[in-house]
Design brief:
mainly alpha, 25 helices, single chain, 5 domains
């Protein structure tokens, strides 16, 4: 077992205190040997802190083998020989790690299957260990140039092809098939029908079958909406729909359509990003140059805060036209003046003209972030309302591109439309008649969200089920906003 340090040293606190989710291990320990092929040259590995997974590993085997990957002596090639350069590039990109992993998985299924013979399990466990070592050698071959010999494992078919891998290949196949080729659903159906799942003993191999049976045995939720006749007092009259005012019914229908349109449009507008997503890149460059304390990222961004959007767009275009990333050191100040012709940037000229550690990206990242922000703000501003929108829709989406919690704001504006404070200037809606029209349209979610007090007043008293509905309205958030209903009731009585 591995436990965290109780006290970190001075240098750990100074240089690594800002890092999160990073496991630092002692160089004198044997932990490195158990990290799946990692070596000591700065490799990155993923650790699992889930106690459930760790307990399963400990329960299955407490004596995990320490696999030592031998270091291969690198091949020395002539850099001026074009053929040697070609071989080096070919070996770098011709990795067989995927083939080794699939081969290890096929053997591992048998090695850890309790129903397999003991001798066969032991033999395949040794093969899995050897394939793990070969995986490390295959990864190191990109640097050493020496490819391990895999003919004893990949060329042989000692283990059957994994059912799990077959299912994965079919399920991940998303390309469009030809008219004469079987479809993806057809291939999945044949895969499940032609496999004798009773003879499969490995739990991993049975995972696709378990998933199929779970989907078949799980009952789908069937919506059972209640009809207005069982919910409201006014619906006890069989002819309540025929007694509705057609003109008022049309007004309520248009209002509900405007409300649903406002919600959809506001949802779209609020998903348009406005954050500065390149700030981390700027901080990374400053940190790698040792300037994170000398120059703040927020201060660099603040230098462009009051620059007009038109100048930001022009600066982004000039970055490409003047080839800022290829500018020689002696010409960078003059090119910077041409790109950013405003005074607030000049005080950081040394930072922008320093191209160390990819420093040319700082100016481009900041300008691109502000250009994207202005573009997204313009989209939000001009897409909130469109030509042909009704007055109610314009009122619901007023300043909608500014606020983030759009649903509560739109609901509040809609209540003001239904029950305006100044009745001389605008004809409001009768909430009881609005409830009837919405019930006739099947829009009960609308009335529960906007006028729950009318539902509370008109809810049927017959049956215990509807008493629970009334108690639900009292106990939940909808019931708690019934304070609106008290004010609205007084207003109607006055």
């Amino acid at each position: 077992m591995v436990y965290p340090l109780k006290e970190a040293g001075y240098f750990r606190e100074k240089y690594f205190s800002h890092l999160g989710y990073v496991a630092m291990i002692d160089s004198r320990s044997a932990i490195q040997e158990r990290l799946g092929g990692a070596d000591y040259d700065g490799d990155m590995v993923k650790t699992i802190a889930d106690p459930l997974i760790n307990n399963c590993v400990l329960r299955s085997s407490r004596m995990l083998p320490v696999l030592k990957i031998p270091a291969a002596k690198p091949l020395i090639a002539d850099a001026n020989d074009w053929h040697e350069r070609f071989i080096t590039v070919k070996n770098t990109f011709s990795s067989r790690v995927g083939q080794i992993s699939n081969c290890a998985l096929r053997r591992g299924i048998i090695a850890y299957d309790e129903n397999s013979p003991a001798e066969e399990r032991e033999r395949f466990r040794k093969d899995v260990e050897m394939l793990t070592i070969l995986t490390g050698l295959e990864i190191d071959s990109a640097k050493s140039g020496i490819k391990p010999n895999l003919s004893d494992y990949i060329g042989k078919r000692e283990a059957n092809k994994s059912l799990f891998l077959r299912f994965k290949n079919i399920d991940n196949d998303n390309y469009e098939t030809k008219w004469y080729e079987p479809t993806k659903n057809r291939r999945l159906k044949e895969f499940f029908e032609k496999t004798d799942w009773e003879s499969v003993t490995s739990n991993l191999e049975k995972l696709p079958y378990y998933a199929l049976m779970l989907s078949k045995e799980t009952e789908k939720i069937k919506p059972n909406p209640q009809v207005p006749e069982k919910l409201f007092i006014f619906a006890e009259d069989p002819e309540w729909k025929e007694k509705l005012d057609p003109a008022f019914f049309e007004r309520v229908k248009c209002l509900i359509e405007d409300y649903e349109t406002a919600l959809k449009r506001a949802q779209y507008l609020n998903h348009i990003p406005v954050d500065m997503k390149r700030k981390n890149d700027v901080y990374r460059i400053l940190f790698s140059r040792g300037q994170e304390n000398e120059y703040s990222v927020d201060r660099l961004y603040a230098a462009f805060e009051y620059v007009p959007a038109s100048k930001i767009r022009r600066a982004r275009r000039m970055l490409d036209e003047l080839k800022w990333h290829l500018t020689p050191p002696e010409e960078r100040p003059n090119v910077l003046d041409k790109i950013c012709d405003y005074f607030s940037v000049f005080q950081y000229r040394d930072v922008f003209c320093d191209f160390r550690n990819g420093g040319y990206r700082i100016l481009g990242d900041i300008i691109a972030d502000f250009d994207d922000m202005h573009s997204n703000a313009g989209i939000k501003k001009h897409s909130a309302t469109k030509n042909g929108d009704s007055e109610n829709l314009k009122q619901l989406l007023d300043n909608r591109y500014v606020h983030g919690y759009y649903r509560e704001d739109i609901n509040e504006r809609l209540r003001h439309i239904l029950m305006p404070i100044r009745t001389r200037d605008y004809n409001g809606f009768d909430c009881k008649e609005t409830l009837k029209c919405a019930a006739a349209l099947g829009k009960l979610d609308f009335v529960l969200e906007i006028i729950p007090f009318s539902v509370y007043e008109e809810a049927s008293h017959h049956g215990r089920k509807y008493e629970k509905v009334r108690r639900y309205l009292d106990d939940t958030r909808i019931g708690r906003i019934l304070g609106i209903h008290h004010g609205a009731k007084i207003y109607r009585e006055e």
